[in-house]
């Protein structure tokens, strides 16, 4: 999949947010490991990810203080402490649930 000039993967509409979010903090070796896995899997699949330091937001710090790194896929918590590449890949390639499904 080729990239657009603005750096977003082809097929991803302008303005659509990244499917993967990584919450981390500076100096965290588990966060460094998680980032490497997230970067690799997202690159393989043509997905973008966002990373946010929990130190920049008191609510995130309170919520995730003991769980970082934390990954979210499509806004839902996916993993914490460790990121399994196979599990992340499966989540990103699975058909999303239909909005009216119960």
TrEMBL record:
Cross-referenced SUPFAM superfamilies: Thioredoxin-like (SSF52833)
A family per Pfam: Glrx-like
InterPro entries: Glutaredoxin-like, Glutaredoxin-like_YDR286C, Thioredoxin-like_sf
Name of the protein described by the UniProt record: Glutaredoxin family protein
Organism: Nocardioides flavescens
């Amino acid at each position: 999949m080729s990239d657009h000039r603005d750096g977003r993967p082809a097929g991803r509409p302008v303005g659509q947010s990244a499917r993967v979010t990584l919450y981390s903090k500076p100096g965290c070796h588990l966060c460094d490991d998680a980032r490497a896995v997230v970067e690799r899997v997202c690159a393989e699949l043509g997905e973008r990810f966002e990373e946010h330091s929990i130190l920049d937001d008191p609510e995130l710090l309170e919520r995730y203080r003991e769980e970082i790194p934390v990954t979210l896929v499509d806004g839902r918590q996916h993993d914490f402490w460790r990121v399994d590449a196979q599990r992340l890949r499966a989540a990103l390639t699975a058909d999303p649930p239909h909005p009216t499904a119960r």
